[in-house]
Amino acid sequence: MNLVRVGARACLVEVEDAVTAASLATWARESGPAADEIVPAATTVLFDGVDPAEVAAALPHWSRDAPPARGPVVRVPVTYDGPDLEAVAAHWGCSADEVVALHTSLELVALFSGFAPGFSYLSGLPAERSVPRLESPRARVAPGSVALADTWCGIYPSASPGGWLVVGTTDVVLWDADLPQPALLAPGTRVRFEVAG
Fold first, then answer.
1. Which of 12, 45, 131, 180 is the most exposed place for a label (fewest CB within 10 A)?
2. Strands 37-40 and 152-155
3. pLDDT, tens digit (0-9, with 9 covering 90-100), for 131-143
4. CA 196, CA 62: separation in Å to the nearest integer?
């Protein structure tokens, strides 16, 4: 763990992985230093609006065994018609139906957000189901695309370039700036995918 000052009133705490970052962020929000914002990412947690010395003094009180936040379960209906569904099946050595069965059997957890407003990095895909990114990213991925990369799953909230493998689509709205909590899949949210009826 390493602390990097970012000006007088902010710092980044570098950790080994996203689960650890989520755990640290959860602890910090509940009983850590009083920061204006605490933002987890893949291997860092940003503490903004607090003296870095306060963060450094508080960190020894955090237990690495503390679990990340466990938020509500959000069910996401998916039409499994993605252009990369067969490629994922080939990579896993199974049928497209088996990809769907595995994907809908998992409970994934939003560990952090980034890339675009409403895009959450969902953890929980088994390590043996890791998939590579596209060699050449697409210039445009449609909003609502459900995609995999490495051991992550994500849903594109808006049209954007992207290199993840798209396995399906959903009509769920992921970002609404008019809501008190604009992101549907805030960190800690548990996600269950299901076949759209």
1. 180
2. unpaired
3. 999 999 999 999 9
4. 41
Q: In Å, what is the CA distance from 93 to each residue of 28, 45, 71, 125?
A: 42, 37, 33, 16
86 and 44 Cβ atoms separated by less than 8 Å: no
Q: What is the pLDDT of residues 106-119, one digit of tens each?
A: 999 999 998 899 99
How do beta strands 44-48 and 120-123 pair? unpaired
Give Cα 8 to chain centroid, integer Å. 29
The DSSP 8-state label assigned to residue 93 in this structure reads T
Tell me if 41 sits within 8 A of 114, measured CB to CB. yes
Q: Are 170 and 76 in contact (CB under 8 A)?
A: yes
What domains are there in the chain, each with its CATH number?
Answer: 2-61 (3.30.1360.40), 73-195 (2.40.100.10)
CB 15 within 8 A of CB 25: no
Mean per-residue pLDDT of the chain: 94
Give how far Cα 10 sits from Cα of 18, 30, 32, 33, 111, Å: 20, 18, 14, 12, 21
